[in-house]
Design brief:
Four copies of one chain form a homotetramer. By secondary structure, chain A is mainly α. Chain A is built from five helices and two strands. Chain A is elongated. Chain B binds a DNA duplex through helix 3.
DNA sequence: GTGGTCTAGACCACG
DNA sequence: GTGGTCTAGACCACC
């Protein structure tokens, strides 16, 4: 069984879940440069979803330089954790900005916001998704 | 002219924009309990969108107890800013948790996370969306 | 202030609420034969609803012989509690049948149904609506 | 042919009929968790009603956790009969309370009420609606 | 093929 | 005038 999973109840698109999932595996060190990804077909079979969806995810990962696909050999990991970490941090900041903005407009105080941010960090478990 | 607007370029659904918009007006004090909302038809005419879309937004607001609608009369505001603010705060916390979780899994340190949260608050403007 | 009230949140039609309300006042003895009902206009003003709605309720009550309207004198109660009680009992039985039917179709046992009916009687307060 | 039907003569709204209908099929065991529901379009064609109406019913069922819908896939049953039965029982109790309350206010005795409840159960047929 | 959203326009009951 | 429901038909994203 693979470490890759999808959640049908999530409103996020399946291919996007896959992309984030694989990036997460690299970030957490479970996948390293040169590691081989499961084939499109086998992963599709395993997850019970359409091969096109896997393909779309792999294409997106290839387009952004995270993986590389070689004819007849499959797909291998290119990027290492450090590279992805920077991108991830940027996205985090922009999402935090959006939240901060909404909080301000709702009349939530800076104290409450900071308190919530600290609690959020404290409460979430370690590695598990 | 009403305070309610929609942005056709926004990928967010129209009816959801309306819901958030009206909640925002309550949060900012521009709408208070017992205030009357524009009628479904008049608002539709004014915004140039279909009455059904307004209807959907109003129904959602009624379902969640934000407004009350009376046949042949119209809709009035029920919830006050404080009630909505609490709900808003809960949503904020849960989103922060999700972000904190992803940050942890990406190997981002607590220091970086807190720094990002503080910067986010500092950088966002005041009231404007 | 009158004993008659309406609930805008109730999905039941206003005129129907009025009809039931007045019948209830007779059943509970707060209105007796020959008692005078408030005038259409004054009641409309007091409750903040359309006189047409009061009119509709009074017409319905007159049609079913509960009240009588005399030109220039207003409306007075005709029926006494005993007469109404029998009608009320019939309606009660038919509603109970509907509930029993739904309960059966949902696989609820007779024991649970009877238990629920007994509890319902025990739990409801005395006179208040 | 599907087990789902609608009755145009019924004053109950079509989408509500559909909701109750599907819940009923789950309660009676004709639909179980993981069973697939007919697609919005096919059911609309079959029943001769508008897809939007089916959509509305399915959305309501999803909102209340009875079914789950996946983009491009269709809808499957989530809740099992026991869960629905509990909800149904709660609704039954609250309706019985209302009836008991009205009965008390009408001066109906406990004996008459219980007798009526027992008769109601005895008289209604088995499964058919 | 699937569901999700939106528009256009109709009808009803109610005030 | 008001809201509530339904139909018809279109478009989009996704599988």
């Amino acid at each position: 069984m693979s470490l890759i999973t999808v959640d049908f109840r999530d409103r996020k698109q399946l291919f996007e879940q896959l992309v984030d999932n694989i990036k997460g595996l690299i970030l957490s060190g479970e996948l390293s440069p040169d590691d081989k990804l499961p084939s499109v077909r086998s992963l599709a079979r395993e997850l019970g979803i359409n091969p096109n969806t896997i393909q779309k995810a792999y294409s997106e990962l290839e387009r952004t330089g995270v993986i590389m696909t070689i004819q007849g050999r499959g797909s291998i990991v290119l990027a290492d954790a450090n590279i992805l970490r920077d991108e991830q941090e940027e996205r985090l900041v922009s999402r935090l900005k959006q939240i901060a903005n909404e909080a301000k407009n709702s009349g939530i105080t800076k104290e409450k916001y900071i308190k919530a941010a600290l609690e959020a960090w404290a409460k979430v478990g370690g590695k598990d998704e």
